[in-house]
Sequence to fold (226 residues):
Amino acid sequence: DAGITQSPRHKVTETGTPVTLRCHQTENHRYMYWYRQDPGHGLRLIHYSYGVKDTDKGEVSDGYSVSRSKTEDFLLTLESATSSQTSVYFCAISESAGGYEQYFGPGTRLTVT
Amino acid sequence: QKEVEQDPGPLSVPEGAIVSLNCTYSNSAFQYFMWYRQYSRKGPELLMYTYSSGNKEDGRFTAQVDKSSKYISLFIRDSQPSDSATYLCAMRGPSQGAQKLVFGQGTRLTINP
Fold:
């Protein structure tokens, strides 16, 4: 988890409320990712960023948006949280264009009631 | 059918045993193969990665790729209780600009003292 922090680490929120999760890195890596991890599904990519203000969708992007205004910060927003978005969210960073060496943060456990 | 299949286990072995963890995949374009280790309530950490076919060794860990069979393995020699974790395989293809990893769902491993 060195060089990557996520906040908050735990959050309980109600259905319909917006939620923003933050990923902060001190490694100056160009590429940043948001994943969710659910039993039976493993890690699934939500969105990723290949530079400041450059983002793209992943496998499960519906209901999520992202922003990256600085190299070190990557924000994930759940526009209107639903119970199906209860999950553990991980941020990852990568220096290589290939993205095969990704380093993960400690995760955010989100519960939507 | 999932692109990457991994037996979720759980797998329980005695200390000192050789452990074999495996993944199969369906996408013949995959060229990079990774193994991550995830301790409970922590983020995944990269153990090793290989490119294309062949073996790669790092201490007690050996990664093996058989592209003809679309099958990858991770062997752990002289297993220790500290190896108890969930092991995730991950893969990606050669597409430029799309550093998207596809993960298996992970195998939960327990090493019994």
